[in-house]
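Subject: mismatched residue count in predicted assembly?

I count 674 residues in my input, but I want to confirm that the predicted structure covers every chain. Input:
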Amino acid sequence: MPVAAPTLADVAESAGVSRQTVSNAVNNPDLLRPDTLLRVQEAIAELGYVPNRAARNLRTRASHLVGLRLSPVLEGNATAVGDRFVHSLVWTSREAGYHVLLFSGEGHAAIDGYEDLLRSTAVDAFVVTDTYLGNPQATWLRERRAPFVAFGRPWDDPDARHPWVDVDGAAGTEMATRHLLDKGHTRVAWIGWRKDSFIGEDRRSGWSRALHERGLSTTGMASRVEDTVSSGREASAVLLDEARPSAFVCASDTLAMGVLHTLAERGLQPGRDIAVAGFDDSQVAQVVHPGLTSVRQPLEEVAVAVVRSLEDLLATPSYVGEGLLLTPSLTVRPSTG
Amino acid sequence: MPVAAPTLADVAESAGVSRQTVSNAVNNPDLLRPDTLLRVQEAIAELGYVPNRAARNLRTRASHLVGLRLSPVLEGNATAVGDRFVHSLVWTSREAGYHVLLFSGEGHAAIDGYEDLLRSTAVDAFVVTDTYLGNPQATWLRERRAPFVAFGRPWDDPDARHPWVDVDGAAGTEMATRHLLDKGHTRVAWIGWRKDSFIGEDRRSGWSRALHERGLSTTGMASRVEDTVSSGREASAVLLDEARPSAFVCASDTLAMGVLHTLAERGLQPGRDIAVAGFDDSQVAQVVHPGLTSVRQPLEEVAVAVVRSLEDLLATPSYVGEGLLLTPSLTVRPSTG
DNA sequence: ATGAAAGCGCTAACAT
DNA sequence: ATGTTAGCGCTTTCAT
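Triage response: the counts match. Full output below for your records.
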């Protein structure tokens, strides 16, 4: 049923020109005389010619594909953010003429995945999303001089030369904290991640900065736990008993949900009795009662910046990467009054 | 820095065999004498040879890529399900030697996306996820005789010959309803989608079946609304006033969240005063207080079945598609007592 | 402005 | 069991 797809040669014959002229009509139309161009374009339209990617890829040594490794399904904010980011990336890439190739693999298999795709010329570059300290992938890619753009700062090496885009988490939590201070709160507690998380410490610094700015002390007002609902629940219960905060700022929506659990158990109303702010503006923040105030990462902008870097990187072999830090926004909902 | 990647010819020379023998060593090792195979494999390992995909794709007319269109970001369960499914699909595909290529586009642009990828031989097949009534994509793919597997039944054409995999939504809501009936509830309300949604009507049928089975009436106990939190909130408020249900079964977690809003506003406790069950076992169901009982789709199984169909489809040109209906499970949480 | 020649790296088909 | 030949469809280089 599906007849053999037309090739460059078919179009050339139909239009009465050489194959090369057809190729130019597709890739460098300026080289053709207008009437020739028109004739070729008509032939292309009539035959429904579409260039064969494999042949083009072979010849040009480029696939116009960018690889993105999907981390194993994670609970918490990672999933929510990941999904939104992937959408934005796919959308933005398309406009730049790229498609996104997804692959999987953890630990050693992840490296194998990168290596295989790179060496087999399946992708032109990678987008790397988890650049936590000592991430073997980023290190490997750097050593390999593989073209990649990171969503996330190179926390462990500020001098890293690869292009990256990140969101200023500290600015986000500072924004959330100020919002609460402006509402009259003076006892604002923090629930964040363990100290070995660079991202967690960054977000925490925004909270403490905002408090110090107003001459308020942070002593005894912070807790560092795992990124789970139950950890958030327990931490908030302890803080409520020991520090008597009137508001919580959390490093993630997951932790903020834990706070909401504690409030529900104690018959306290979020937003009226105790204010709560989360981070990521996940689905959960949007649909939970009464609506959770949350810091929102500009993932669409991140995707745009990532793709722009990708284009520079691929256009200029000697491209020296730059870092770009974007500012999040605060989505205010009833949980902060 | 990166020296030219070794080719088949380099390996052949290094091992003292012909290029074809190296090709066979990679693709049909059984054809080689053990000692030759070993020699070639050593040469491959030493040179770090990896076959060039573009060249292989050109020759074999296959890309080992499956295309998946990402629908625009949706609120509600769609996102949650989409993310889990994509993960599963990527994971499963890898084991079958396929990668997933993501693309975007809506309406007319969506068709263009399919057409372009197909004609340019960028992908071998597609996975289609939104097979709602009159979906122009599925129709187009069918007419085009493009290889694809659908996640979702061909509701508008039961005789459709393409392979599909779907989850038995009616079985899921029936399970949820029975669970509530077993708990002693006799007044179980339904909040679902508008009547033009096949999926919505299917899910609704499971609820009514379970009630009728126990000789209970469904009259006045159902509401059909948009899939939003506020719709669920309003519908549940009306039902509570007019039908006095002691439990709700919802077509989505989004609607169930709306019910939770109403309960919170009235000072009613989910699970103690009123039972609530949702659908999709989304992140929201997991983290909301006190935990939302929800029907969980076996997306990992769906992905496995989809990939299996894909393999059959691509191995057998004349493959006649089959449908496969999988059964969901019920994740019980405190919202149902 | 257009065409001819060459070859990217691989594998199917056919020899030996 | 291994080698030889041919060519997938395209673009780069060079000639006209």
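Chain B touches chain A through 59 residues (CB under 8 Å). Marking this ticket as 'not a bug'.
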